[in-house]
Write a structure and sequence with these properties.
The protein has 24 helices and no strands. It is mainly α and 451 residues long. This is Sugar transport protein.
C-alpha cells in the first residue's frame, strides 16, 4: 500500500491528461520545444500533490503510536487499511505498526530478514505502480484516475490480511493478556520451551507499565542514543536522494531525453532492480550485519551520484537532449544507485529503529522515527523539482555530500545490533558503545524517576 503510493505519484505527475486537467501551466511548459530541461516541472502545486501524503502521515504517526500501545499492532493495521479505503491518507499507522510487529514476533537470529520483508513489500508496491503507470499512460483521458483508484487493491489486501494474522505476544502481555500472550509465544515459536523469552517479555512489560509518560521519557538522557539513531536513520534515508529519484523517475528520464512511454518503462526497470536488491538484504542482513551493508552502500551510492551529476553536468544543457548512449548510461547509474540503497538504507532505516527502543518507549520512539521520515520525505518531495531547476546537475552532488556524512555517522556512532535480543539492547549494545555509554549511566535513576 505504501509502496504503491510512492510509485504511482511520480508516474501520474508525468501524464499529459493529468497535467492538462490540474496543472495546465506545467503541461504547456512541458511541450514547449525550448523549455529549460531542468525546470519544465518546477511547480510548487505539482510537488504538493506528491508531498502532501507525507505531511498527513507525519501527524498521523503520533496518533498511531497511542493506538498501537492501547489496542495492539493488529488492530492498528486494520484501522489503517479502512482509513485508506475511504480515501483518507493516514497509512502511517501501518508504517508504525508493521515493523514493530515483525521485530517483536521474529526469532532473534532472523529478525533482520523478517523485518526487511516489510521493505520488500514496499518495493513490490513501487514496482507494481510503475507497471500500472506504464500501461495506463496510453488510456486517454482517464488513465491517471485508474492509476490512483487502484490504490484500493493493496489497502483491501491489508484489511483482509490483518483479520487473520496473530497479535504479537509482547502486545498481548503489554495489555495484561498474559495467558493469551504465552499461548501466542508458544504458537509462533513452535515449541512449549519459551519460558526464558516469556520472562524477558514479562519483565520488559512490567518496566514499561511503570512509565506513565513514554513521550516524556524519550527526552531523558538514557533514551538519547536510541532517539538520535532512529531520527538520524530516517533523515539520512531521505538525504540519500532515493525518494527524489523514485518519485520522479519518469520525470527524470523525460528530462534526459526519453519520451513518455520510454521514461515509464525505465522506471519499471528501476523498480525491478529495487525489488531484487531488497531480496539481497533479506539474505545477508543477519549474516554480514547492519553496519557492513550500510557502509558498502555509502561507497556505491557516492560513486553513482557523483557519476550521474558529472554526466549531466557535461552533457545536458538547458535545451538539448542527451545522446541515446549517454542517456542509457544514466539509467544504468540510476539502477546501480537504487540497488545499493535497496539492500541498505532502505530496509535498515526501518529495521534499526524498530529493534533498538526498549518496550517502555518503543511505540513512542518509533512514532518519532516515522514522523521524522515523513517530515523529510515531505521536504525532499516538495523541494526536489525546484532544487533541480536551480542547482541543475549539482542536485546530485548535493546528495553525494550527504552520503559522505552518513558514512561517517555509521563508522563512529552506529553500533551493530545483529543477533542481539530486542530487550537486551541496553546491556549489550548501548552500555558498551564508546560514545553512547556515557548516556546510559543515568538509566537506573531514570527508571526510578519514571515510576
Amino acid at each position: 500500500m505504501f509502496g504503491y503510493d510512492i510509485g504511482i505519484s511520480g508516474g501520474v505527475t508525468s501524464m499529459d491528461d493529468f497535467l492538462e486537467e490540474f496543472f495546465p501551466v506545467v503541461y504547456e511548459r512541458k511541450h514547449k520545444a525550448k523549455e529549460d530541461n531542468y525546470c519544465k516541472y518546477d511547480n510548487q502545486g505539482l510537488q504538493l500533490f506528491t508531498s502532501s501524503l507525507y505531511l498527513a502521515a507525519l501527524v498521523s504517526s503520533f496518533v498511531a503510536s497511542k493506538v498501537c500501545t492501547k489496542h495492539g499492532r493488529r488492530l492498528t493495521m486494520q484501522a489503517a487499511s479502512v482509513f485508506f479505503l475511504i480515501g483518507v491518507v493516514l497509512n502511517a499507522a501501518a508504517r508504525n505498526a508493521v515493523p514493530l510487529f515483525l521485530s517483536e514476533i521474529a526469532p532473534v537470529h532472523i529478525r533482520g530478514a523478517l523485518n526487511i520483508l516489510f521493505q520488500l513489500d514496499v518495493t513490490i508496491g513501487i514496482f507494481v505502480a510503475n507497471i500500472v503507470n506504464y500501461f495506463v499512460s496510453n488510456i486517454h483521458p482517464w488513465g491517471w484516475r485508474l492509476a490512483l483508484g487502484l490504490a484500493g487493491v493493496p489497502a483491501t489486501m491489508l484489511c483482509l490480511g490483518s483479520m487473520v494474522i496473530a497479535e504479537t505476544p509482547t502486545s498481548l502481555i503489554e495489555r495484561e493478556q498474559l495467558m493469551e500472550g504465552l499461548a501466542m509465544l508458544k504458537k509462533i515459536r513452535g515449541t512449549d520451551n519459551v519460558n526464558a523469552e516469556y520472562e524477558e517479555i514479562l519483565h520488559a512489560c512490567e518496566m514499561a507499565r511503570q512509565v506513565k509518560r513514554p513521550f516524556r521519557n524519550l527526552m531523558k538522557r538514557s533514551s538519547r542514543p536510541q532517539l538520535v539513531i532512529a531520527i538520524a536513520m530516517q533523515v539520512f534515508q531521505q538525504f540519500t536522494g532515493i525518494n527524489a529519484i523514485m518519485f520522479y523517475a519518469p520525470v527524470l528520464f523525460q528530462t534526459i531525453g526519453f519520451k513518455n512511454d520510454a521514461s515509464l518503462l525505465s522506471a519499471v526497470i528501476t523498480g525491478i532492480v529495487n525489488v531484487l536488491s531488497t531480496v539481497v538484504s533479506v539474505v545477508l542482513v543477519d549474516k554480514l550485519g547492519r553496519r557492513f551493508l550500510l557502509l558498502e552502500a555509502c561507497g556505491q551510492m557516492l560513486i553513482t551520484q557523483v557519476a550521474i551529476g558529472g554526466v549531466l553536468l557535461v552533457n545536458l544543457k538547458s535545451t538539448n537532449e542527451l545522446e541515446h548512449g549517454v542517456a542509457v548510461w544514466v539509467v544504468v547509474l540510476v539502477c546501480l544507485f537504487v540497488s545499493s540503497f535497496a539492500w541498505s538504507w532502505g530496509p535498515l532505516g526501518w529495521l534499526i529503529p524498530s529493534e533498538t527502543f526498549p518496550l517502555a518507549t518503543r511505540t513512542a520512539g518509533y512514532a518519532f522515527a516515522v514522523s521524522s521520515n515523513m517530515l523529510f520525505t515531505f521536504v525532499i518531495a516538495q523541494a526536489f523539482l525546484s532544487m533541480m531547476c536551480h542547482l541543475r546537475a549539482g542536485i546530485f552532488f548535493f546528495f553525494a555530500a550527504w552520503i559522505v556524512v552518513m558514512g561517517l555517522f555509521v563508522i563512529f556512532l552506529l553500533p551493530e545490533t545483529k543477533n542481539v535480543p530486542i530487550d537486551e539492547m541496553s546491556e549489550r549494545v548501548w552500555k558498551r558503545h564508546w560514545f553512547w555509554k556515557r548516556f546510559m549511566d543515568e538509566e537506573e535513576q531514570d527508571k526510578k524517576d519514571s515510576v
